[in-house]
Amino acid sequence: MNVIVVGAGILGASAAYHLAREGCKVTLVDRGDDGRATAAGAGIICPWGSAIEDAASYALLVGGARYYQHLLALLGEDGEQDLGYARVGGLYVPADARDLDTIERRARARATEAPEAGRIERLSAADARALFPPLKRDQPALFVPGGARVDGRRLAAALQRAALKRGARFCTGSAEIVMNGRRAAGVRVGLEHIEAEYVVVAAGAWAPSLLAPLGVHLGVAPQRGQIVHLRLPGTDTARWPVLLPLNDYYLLAFEDARVVIGATRESQSGFDYRMTAAGIAEVLNAGLAVAPGLAAWTLAEIRIGFRPLAHDNRPKLGPAPGCDNLLIANGLGASGLTMGPYSGALIAEAVLGKSPKLALGPYAVSS
Ligand SMILES: Cc1cc2nc3c(=O)[nH]c(=O)nc-3n(C[C@H](O)[C@H](O)[C@H](O)COP(=O)(O)OP(=O)(O)OC[C@H]3O[C@@H](n4cnc5c(N)ncnc54)[C@H](O)[C@@H]3O)c2cc1C
Prior knowledge:
Strand content: 25-35%
Structural class: alpha/beta
Distance between the termini: 27 Å
Bound molecules: flavin-adenine dinucleotide
Number of helices: 9
Number of strands: 20
Radius of gyration: 20 Å
């Protein structure tokens, strides 16, 4: 079966990889926009304590975290080892220590159905700091060992490479969808016309403008996130857990003496690809309030990404209204690195006519 996937972020790359594994002839098209979310995302995977209440969104979140182990095995079979994933644990560190009770109850209740969360335990302030040394001194914590981090750039690149090994083709450029009556005939990329039996639109925050000419009004908008990378060469950060203060911010470490503090949530930003004084001040203040030991670290990099945020906050996975061979995969918002690989696998199953592991009804795109 010929399938075109538009968008090679975490979601499109995953769909392309799973389709290629199943023997589809896949063309993956991407134009490398500034602000693509996967290249900016922080990479926290720790859903069990999340305050999210929508059952459908939580199902995708917890399923997404669980799916990682399977995905790592699949990519391993395809010779991919550089995935940027590590199960370092998640440390909940609310400003008001009394909130630990609430978060502990919630995480323990959810962990009964999610053993991958691991053995949840309360930590003293000293034990918490032993795990994440820049943490403030008097901060008790709740530790969830199943929490993980992922580098979206490295994982998406690995998925793309693995898809190519399985026969997929990568096409750089801007895709327009070509319709034949009520069916998608393929896409046009510059002068090239590529035909397909199915088209998957995983174009992130840019998808609404791609779909509008077809009369599909996708309720998704860009939400800018500005995110700060700090470095202190010589510091062994490889096993530091992700820090979740239970406000809009978080910290996580990568193995190259790097700590990332995220992030602004600017819903009226449009595609304004800029770092702002207020945005960076907001993120740094939030991060240093939790981890003052980072104050002397080097400000190494600032990334900017546009989260594809659904107006109703629920991911969109399924056929475009009135067009069964055009599938939409979008709206993963602030949790797309957690949900993305799994969502791509689910969309691939839908294309293949298999009954997806998670029923996609709740994520339907309405007309
Ligand atoms: C600052 C920040 C922090 C985040 N932190 C986390 C986190 O800790 N945990 C978590 O789970 N998630 C996090 N996320 C969310 C996550 O990064 C996103 O939800 C996810 O990356 C979205 O992936 P996507 O593939 O849908 O979109 P994108 O990664 O944006 O990919 C869409 C791709 O489509 C391409 N495209 C668009 N239109 C066309 C066209 N017409 N033709 C060809 N190509 C096209 C674009 O160039 C782009 O490459 C964060 C996001 C941001 C911005």
